[in-house]
Amino acid sequence: MFSNVMTRKSRRFAASAIPRRPDTGPVRNPGTSTGVPDSDASSHVPVMLQEAVALLKVRPGGFYVDATVGAGGHATAIAEQLDGQGHLLALDRDPFAVSLAAKRLENFPNVRVMRGNYRELERWLDMIGWTGIDGLLIDAGVSSMQIDTPDRGFSLQADGPLDMRMDPDQPMSARHLLAGISETGLEKILRDFGDVKMAKRIARRILHARDHGHLASTGDLARAVREALPFVSSGVPDEVRQVFQAIRIAVNDELGALEACLESAVSRLKPGGRIVAIAFHSGEDRVIKRIFRKYARARVEREPDGRTRRVWHP
């Protein structure tokens, strides 16, 4: 776990990176075909709810953005702290998440739930007439709802289509990516986005499966990765997780979108405002640190519980 905070007299940025729930438990709803797990939004527990909202330091009359609303857990906690003058824009590229969040937040008249990619943050702010924001929260990476729905193609535990799209309407899926990629291109994706050590060997095996008509599902992909390993332990090998992560990040251009969102948030942040980012892996953390270093210097401080926090100053 690693945590970063940036403070300035005029603006404040906060970022935290922690492990998200791994995809190791039972699949919640293996039979679904709707794209939404068979549960309501309140059953999904948001990551670092109390810590993230505390770092945001919500002003009752402020203007806030939840860039990844998901099932609406973080957004609800923010909305509960706003008064009649405060506003919250809740974004998500996943239409199924937007549907759940809109239902959960329907009793908050000062909350707008919109389907949109946080990459285009400035576009959405312009659309609703906001010139500045007092804070932004972003929970990068895949959601538990997406993992728990095999038809979305994110799960390691259940066979599903080679999809992995957070926005099901975007043209490129994992199947399309793998259908036309070269061995060198796939190797680069595995190294850059998954930190896969045997990237070349695994990339070659995946494309061998593709070229012989054995790469039609997530189960086929996991099998190809296992076949490339000299020794396979019980359970899900780390290499399978890393390969799924790398391909998912490439399909959704997650790191590019994260960087664009943070840059836009910095440009729109009001004096005293805060940015809170929750990340899962080193690639996301590097993007966050790069943006922060672009605007500030850092020093390490130790928390009372012994954990360290990186504090950013101008």
Describe the structure.
This protein is α/β, with parallel strands linked by helices and 314 residues long. The protein folds into two domains: 2-144 and 254-313, Rossmann fold (3-Layer(aba) Sandwich), CATH 3.40.50.150; 153-252, Putative methyltransferase TM0872, insert domain (DNA polymerase, domain 1), CATH 1.10.150. Helices cover 39% and strands 18% of the residues. The chain has twelve helices and nine strands. It has helices at 49-56, 73-79, 95-104, 121-128, 144-147, 174-180, 183-194, 199-211, 218-228, 238-252, 254-268, 282-295, and strands spanning 2-7, 12-17, 63-66, 87-92, 111-115, 133-139, 269-279, 297-302, 308-313. The chain is globular and about 60 Å long. Residues 1-12 and 15-39 have low confidence and may be disordered.
- Element order: H for helix, E for strand: EEHEHEHEHEHHHHHHHEHEE
CATH topology of the largest domain: Rossmann fold
CATH class of the largest domain: Alpha Beta
Tell me, what's the shape?
Answer: globular
What's the total number of strands? 9
Report, as a whole number of angstroms, the end-to-end distance: 25 Å
Furnish the topology, listing elements before pairings.
Blueprint lengths: L1 E6 L4 E6 L31 H8 L6 E4 L6 H7 L7 E6 L2 H10 L6 E5 L5 H8 L4 E7 L4 H4 L26 H7 L2 H12 L4 H13 L6 H11 L9 H15 L1 H15 E11 L2 H14 L1 E6 L5 E6 L1
Parallel strand pairs: 1-9, 2-7, 3-4, 3-6, 4-5, 6-7
Antiparallel strand pairs: 1-2, 8-9
In short:
By secondary structure, the chain is α/β, with parallel strands linked by helices. The protein has helices spanning 49-56, 73-79, 95-104, 121-128, 144-147, 174-180, 183-194, 199-211, 218-228, 238-252, 254-268, 282-295; strands spanning 2-7, 12-17, 63-66, 87-92, 111-115, 133-139, 269-279, 297-302, 308-313.
